[in-house]
Target: Folate family ECF transporter S component
Amino acid sequence: MVSLSFSSPRVTTRTTVVMAMLVAMSVVLERFSFGTTWLQIGPGIFATLLMAYYLGPWLGAVAAAIADQLSTILSGGPNFLGFTLSAALAVMIYGIFLHEQPVTVWRILLATILVVGIVYTVLNTLWVVMLGASWNTILIPRAIKELATLPIQAGLAYVTLKAVAQIKPHLA
Model:
């Protein structure tokens, strides 16, 4: 049976500093994304995973929303709150499965499938369509890209979080 976590750590100075560092990490990593506006690939998954793992679903979602808004402001691009909602939901889903839970292949795979399926494929495609793209034109390429990157994301998530889980006791 998979147990889920719907809690976040207490807001302390330490938690706030960790949150700020992860927000900064997310903003920096998002600068290395490449691709078209509706089909991007980037290393931002690492910040998303760490926010979920350390901050839980609620504080992680707040951190992801702040990071998304800061990235938008710093890039000078147009602000669309749908993508901010997607960033927060992705961290929330990962946080429910990963915060204060053992790192297992099945837990990470299930969380990644939910995030990729619901947030990245459906919601982000909906936001791009709302911004003027044609649903028929972008759905198939985006779905193929998400299916292709799903095992890569799950594998990177597993390796990253296993390493983080080993050093976490030494950070306290």
Observations:
- The chain has five helices and two strands.
- The helical segments are 13-30, 45-75, 81-98, 105-130, 135-171.
